[in-house]
Amino acid sequence: MDKIIGNYRWRILVLIFFATTINYIDRQVIGMLKPYIAEELGWTESGYGYIVTAFQVAYAIGLLLAGRILDKIGTKTGYTIAILVWSFAGMAHAAARSVFSFGIARFFLGLGESANFPAAVKSVAEWFPKKERALATGLFNSGSSIGAITAPIIVTSITMVYGWQWAFLITGASGFVWVIFWRVFYKIPQNHIKLSKTEYLYIHSDQEYVNDKPMLWRDIIRYKQTLAICLTRFVTDWVWWFFLFWGPAFLNKTFGINLKEIVLPLIIIYSVAGVGGIAMGWLSSFFIKSGKSIDYSRKTSILICAIIVLPIIAAPKIDNLWIVTGLISLAAAAHQGWASNIFTVVSDIFPKKAVATVVGLSGFAGAIGGALAASLVGLVLEVTDSYFLILSVAGFSYLIAWMILKFMIPKIEPIEREME
User: What does the alpha-carbon distance between residue 304 and residue 415 come to, in Å, rounded to a whole number?
Assistant: First the structure.
């Protein structure tokens, strides 16, 4: 029976992985099609920047609310509502014809998609002990890379045959299928009738909270750990958004490659990114199993990721497509490894019933950074017609964020230890 339940935990992880995959397919469609929709509808760089900003603002608002709502109504119901909202919004893009109408569709897409990571991290915290969480988080988070890998193939195939509107309709509809499986299969450990005491104790084997009651907003925001995590995401999240929303346009502009030719570079970039997320999650878990502290394991893995991003600064000065693809691949892999560990740090520090709230709050900070960056990126590109300044800032962002984490959280440990 314990083996059955153990397998069940990993099946839940597979469902979360596919939700994250769908999430990223839906959000990346517009980045893939941007050069072609822009030409057809007459978008400017700044106009596209405002469309991206609409998504980011909604994503920020949603994250501020989604975590709290998930901690109240639970992951089963919360995840269901979220994916229904973003699926309908994804399909609505097909009817848009102006910057304003695309902005409205992106706003509701961002509002729904904002709940994905708070719900996913909360589900992992519910079903996995700490020593397995970084790897589990890396595995489900690799769905973002798989989504980014499959999006070029799916979007290109649909667009070439049926037109760009159908790319939004078909990808958006995939979320409805996922909801059926989620509603049928997901249960929290306390409600799983086949869960044995042995397995329950294993899941909670390293739980260090005696009282795991919900935390109020005022309790959460007063901790410097909360501020530190929020600042690291504010400084770094925009870089990943840049890869998603401007990456195809950057390759198209720099090397003149078309929709078909861009597929292979994007597949390489996001395949490497997926491996990076899993590898850095595994590395962190490996350190812990080798006897290193959680603090050492998370911070060392995060520092390695920050160093790996640095070469992206050279990308605008290189005229070889495959070298540039390699540099972007490394940066994307480092970001995913970074994300796997940052998400896990939240569950290392906060009680399970506060995890979604803190992930949502930190995601809000990251989305605000992304919203500001989206508008600035559009304006910088219009003024300079160059990606050099943008990628230079991106290259150093993760080292800055690591220093914030290092000095504001001297030791990664449960917050209740400070109260004892």
Answer: 26
